[in-house]
């Protein structure tokens, strides 16, 4: 399993609209992607315009090749992209140590 972390910054005052849009995009687009396992969105406390999107993918290629290179990516960006104050910073992680 691969964990994608997207650090998203949005324009001030757009939190409610962005949260509605990202929930819609996750439900209607991301959930349809090959290898999608789960997703979670966290909002910054000190920086309320900052969000961390966490998506679990079966493989790295499910995100980088199949999703980003396929028709779902433009649909996703059309939903959430207008809220971005800057391009999201995206990184991928693999589990190494677990507790519990």
Automatic annotation (TrEMBL):
Q: Which domain of life is it from?
A: Bacteria
Q: What InterPro entries does the annotation carry?
A: ABM_dom (IPR007138), Dimeric_a/b-barrel (IPR011008)
Q: Which residues form the ABM domain?
A: 2-93
| Keywords carried by this UniProt record | Monooxygenase, Oxidoreductase
- Gene3D superfamilies for the chain: 3.30.70.100
A GO molecular function annotation here is:
monooxygenase activity
Presence of the UniProt keyword Oxidoreductase in the record:
yes
Q: Write down what this protein is called.
A: Heme-degrading monooxygenase HmoA
Annotated organism of origin: Roseateles oligotrophus
């Amino acid at each position: 399993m691969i964990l994608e972390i997207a650090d998203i910054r949005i324009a001030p005052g757009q939190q409610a609209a962005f949260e509605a849009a990202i929930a819609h995009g996750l439900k209607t687009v991301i959930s349809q992607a090959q290898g999608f396992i789960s997703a979670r969105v966290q909002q910054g406390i000190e920086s309320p315009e900052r969000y961390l999107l966490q998506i679990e993918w079966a493989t790295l290629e499910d995100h980088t090749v199949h999703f980003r290179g396929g028709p779902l990516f433009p649909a996703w960006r059309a939903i959430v992209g207008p809220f971005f104050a800057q391009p999201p910073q995206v990184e991928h992680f693999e589990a190494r140590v677990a507790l519990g």
